[in-house]
Amino acid sequence: xxxxxxGGGLVQPGGSLRLSCAASGFTFSRYVMSWYRQAPRxxxxxxxxxTSGGASTNYADSVKGRFTISRDxxxxxxxxxxxSLKPEDTAVYYCKxxxxxxxxxxxQVTVSS
Length: 113
Description:
This protein is mostly beta strands. The protein contains no helices and 10 strands.
């Protein structure tokens, strides 16, 4: 199993980023996928989840209305579109497949002026 996150960077408050997570080593289309994040000195938290077929999504209250999770089961990739970013969104972002205990290296998102 391999999960490779990308797309992070430094962005000003109010800006946008689109994260990608390329998955391999398992049947991607059969798994619920999630994005998590971990800020310095804080526990890792669940940000968003999408069902295997992409029909249903769920979000943490802190990102609802600003972030959108999506997936492409042909490209074995899950995305996180982040709009209206705030300094408190600063964290390392990770993707994860449900029921699989594997994590990628994460991608750093820093929101600062």
